[in-house]
Amino acid sequence: MALIEISGMKRHYVMTSETVKALDGIDLHIQKGERIILLGPSGSGKTTLLNCVAALDNPTEGNYSFEGAAVPRGHAEKMTTFRRENIGYVFQFFNLLQDLTVLENILLIQELSGARDTKRAVELLSLVGLEAEIDRFPAEISGGQQQRVAIARSLAKSPKLLLGDELTGNLDSATSSKVMEVLVKACETEGITLIMVTHDESLAKYATRVVRLDSGKIISDEKVSN
Ligand code: ADP
Ligand code: MG
Question: Is residue 124 classed as helix, strand or coil in its secondary structure?
């Protein structure tokens, strides 16, 4: 059984003058442990697809199952539960709390999603190479390090699927590479499946599979040979 099975997924925005077909018939099966990079021009539907996968948005049509069960739709509370149990998200802007230290940023998320576990928080920060920075504040570390904290934070609730939207979009290329290396290692260590949107072709080497979108459709879907 695939982790994700999507077939015929559409997301249409009906507006007065036109209908925007943000997703226009997506078929996608993803196995546990795959690392997918979604590439495509601006407006091709990448963010819409991630939002539908995360159950942040409701597809207009089509089927979507996760671990063999239909993903809830049109029911905010069930969608929130699905996200809480399964999905981690890393954003372009790191959104760390500035008044909390690196370690406290992780502990807070643990508290919100169950229980504080300092040992596990330190382990996650070590996994992203920040064991020396745990007592610093976000303003006292670099952008790349802040994004690594955000990755550790997204792992704190042990998601099955990690989603990233332009998560290196704010970083220079050397820093992007370091963040990607850390991300790949974290996904492998924790057994997490990754779907990541980018417009940076050079990041394809960190993926196991590259999916290209255009005008709401998949135009290519290829395994990466590393
Ligand atoms: P990408 O992330 O690839 O740049 P998006 O998924 O954000 O693309 O958008 C896909 C298409 O859907 C674009 O044409 C965009 O303008 C349109 N779109 C996205 N959100 C909305 C919305 N809330 N209302 C109307 N159109 C939207
Ligand atoms: Mg986008």
Answer: helix
